[in-house]
Amino acid sequence: MMRTVLDIFAQILRNLWAHKLRSFLTMFGIAWGVGSLLLLVGVGEGFRSGNKRELAEFGKNIMFLFPGRAPAVKGNMNSARSYLLTYQDYVDIRQAGYVRNACPIISRGDLHEVSEFATGSGEILGTEPQLNEISYLPLQEGRWLNELDGVQRRNVIVLGNELLKTLFPGRPAVGAFILLNGIRFEVVGSMPHLGRGENMWLNLRGYIPFQVMAANFPLKGENHQNSISFIEYQPLVTAEHLLAQEEVHKIVGRNHGFDASDRSAFDEWDSIQESKMVGTIFDVMNMFLGAVGMVTLALGAIGVINIMLVAVSERTQEIGLRKALGATNRNILFHFFLEGLLLTLGSGLIGMVMAGGLMAMMGGIHGPQGFDPPKLVPMSAVLAIGSLTLAGVAAGLYPARKAAMLQPVEALRQE
Q: Which helix (H) or strand (E) segment is 85 a member of?
């Protein structure tokens, strides 16, 4: 049996070689169809994963609340007055039923940072230790802020990567000291580079205990006593983020004396909602790219079917000769099945390898912000190669079966 299969393969290869141009065009059509589909779907997948990664660099399920403007009359922004968030707002939000975690932040971008080597102008954030449970804040060296830092009002700071490079160029920072507006702080930790490319704002940050920030560098301006820059929080369950948001609105509305049902009164950003919107956009984009790819694939399949029908129909006499020499219908169909399989499956795999190689070459190229290089999607590869192989094999078997059913004399007479 093995010998028979090997003989058939040798015969198939001789036949393909005898019709080099036709074989090449058939294989090229299949490889092109598969490669195009995989590239299109791969580009869509790269976009999707890039955006997911961008959002993940903020943290998981983060919701931000900023100071806003509350209208005295609902919906009438002409009567709006500004309100500031306070530490009490944060305390109440953290105790809310639908909120898992929350953190108050005081942000100042006008403090002077001075080390013994250089001066910097980054953003200094006063925050509580739980910020690293909400935001994505990995450590490169040293430690993060802890509860005792706040309770004992320790002058300690954790530096972002760019601020670290500015203040301590090529020198160790952990254990060293810097001055913030003349007040001495010990560097207890540093962070790796966050994000990609030229986006530096996350890396130009320094983090100090909230109590130290509130005492030494409170927010400037009138009525700013006990006020904070913004609050970061997470819902208890991702799916219930809108319930958490509603609860937060009620707390802030109650604390500041305005109607919490007026959405225009809140300045906020919900990364969960953003993630859902991005997901929907990419689902639609994937469907579009998939549809374009399927059209390309269908055109490739039509070309393959056409060539296979002509190629097998031309060999009716060969089938008649084989039948006259004792070949059964089964032998003949098995031969054409293997020929169709070798041609289509082999070409499909070539297309996949070419698309994979092209994507690997593009892997080193950094695209625009939020876009990753294209990725090979195995499911698309299986679908593309499977459908073209099926089309090619069916197109080869149909005329072969028709010819095999003829009497040998009839088949030999066919032109």
A: strand 85-86
